[in-house]
User: Which sequence fits this backbone?
């Protein structure tokens, strides 16, 4: 992948900058978790200080429009942002030519999610180059991630580069000492990681709904617990009897449902984490939004923070949980990617990275 270091002179360059601003927003229109926006500050500042004209393109699922969030985003990014309602407003901004603008929610344009070439061409109008700093969106084949790279000279942004380098290193690290902690829901995104690392890690510790899925696939009775209907098919071919795959032995139960791992399981998981040299964690151990089912996630989050191991965590709910616990700055690396991090770890091809010339299997 070409990076910012490959750009001769940034001064006056008009840059389409794909960022990830997909943050949760509270009912009060306050950004509930600003982590992803904060992680874009450095690159935006670097480009603007070098004299580039920057238009930030991003999407948000929690709201229809960025409009009401612009003052908050501007404060987080640390500079004033012009707000552009539609892609048609871009060429005029680029002609005036200075500073940083934010284009409204790119997913307001249905062409975005269709990876539409005509739309990408329209979006590219007036720009000199494209920078993708949105690692968390790279598993999507969308116009501002994929088709756009056919319209403009394209570069990996520094955060994207850093995410790829850190996760690649983690994959390449020896199986011995490598502990994967997997929780949460969405079996389709988690089972490929479990399947891959069963033979490539010291242990995979599973909690959350994905543990229910595995127990069910093994033939255990999980009562009224939530499970993924597709899980058995997704787990087909996985060696579920492998002793590296560590499932909970006790649970916090409410109305017949397993809603958190129990204390004996947490203690056992911690014993693995204490001996690890690298821990990769995605997904809460239970329904942590309810304090009654937070203990498993708290114990595991604390153990990873306190262990001497290198620690990589990711996932929107995982980050929300560790933020609540006051532990967000206690890990070696916090990925902005949830689905993208899992896809990368699983060894899947990410269209956004391929579009930048990255070969996952090189
Ligand atoms: P992340 O966003 O970190 O990748 P997920 O989105 O996969 O995590 O999963 C988080 C969700 O899983 C949370 O809403 C949590 O309440 C839910 N969850 C975890 N364990 C359980 C459980 N045992 N039963 C029901 N829901 C659970
Ligand atoms: Mg989530």
Assistant:
């Amino acid at each position: 992948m070409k990076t910012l270091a490959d750009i001769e002179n940034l001064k006056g360059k008009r840059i389409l900058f794909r960022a990830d601003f997909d943050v949760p927003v509270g009912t009060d229109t306050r950004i509930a978790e600003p982590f992803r926006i904060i992680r874009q500050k450095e690159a935006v500042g670097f480009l603007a200080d070098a004299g580039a004209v920057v238009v930030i393109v991003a999407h948000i699922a929690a709201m229809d429009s960025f409009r009401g969030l612009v003052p908050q985003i501007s404060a987080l990014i640390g500079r004033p942002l012009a707000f552009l309602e539609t892609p048609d407003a871009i060429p005029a901004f680029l002609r005036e030519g200075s500073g940083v603008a934010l284009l409204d929610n790119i997913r307001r344009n249905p062409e975005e999610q269709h990876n539409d070439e005509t739309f990408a061409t329209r979006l590219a109008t007036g720009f000199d180059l494209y920078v993708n700093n949105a690692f968390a969106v790279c598993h999507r084949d969308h116009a501002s991630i994929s088709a756009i790279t056919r319209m403009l000279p394209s570069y990996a942004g520094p955060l994207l580069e850093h995410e790829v380098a850190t996760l690649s290193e983690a994959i390449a690290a020896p199986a011995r000492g490598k502990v994967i902690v997997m929780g949460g829901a969405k079996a389709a995104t988690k089972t490929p990681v479990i399947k891959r690392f069963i033979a490539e890690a010291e242990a995979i510790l599973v909690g959350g709904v994905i543990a229910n899925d595995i127990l069910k696939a093994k033939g255990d009775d999980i009562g009224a617990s939530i499970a993924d209907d597709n899980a058995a098919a997704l787990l087909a071919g996985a060696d579920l009897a492998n002793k590296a795959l560590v499932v909970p032995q006790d649970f916090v139960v409410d109305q017949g449902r397993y809603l958190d791992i129990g204390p004996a399981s947490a203690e056992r998981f911690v014993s693995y984490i204490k001996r690890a040299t690298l821990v990769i964690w995605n997904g809460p151990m239970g329904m942590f939004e309810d304090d009654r089912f937070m203990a498993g996630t708290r114990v595991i989050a604390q153990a990873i923070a306190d262990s001497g191991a290198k620690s990589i965590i990711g996932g929107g709910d995982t980050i929300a949980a560790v933020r609540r616990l006051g532990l967000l700055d206690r890990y070696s690396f916090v990925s902005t990617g949830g689905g993208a991090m899992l896809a990368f770890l699983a060894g899947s091809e990410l269209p956004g990275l391929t579009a930048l010339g990255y070969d996952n299997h090189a």
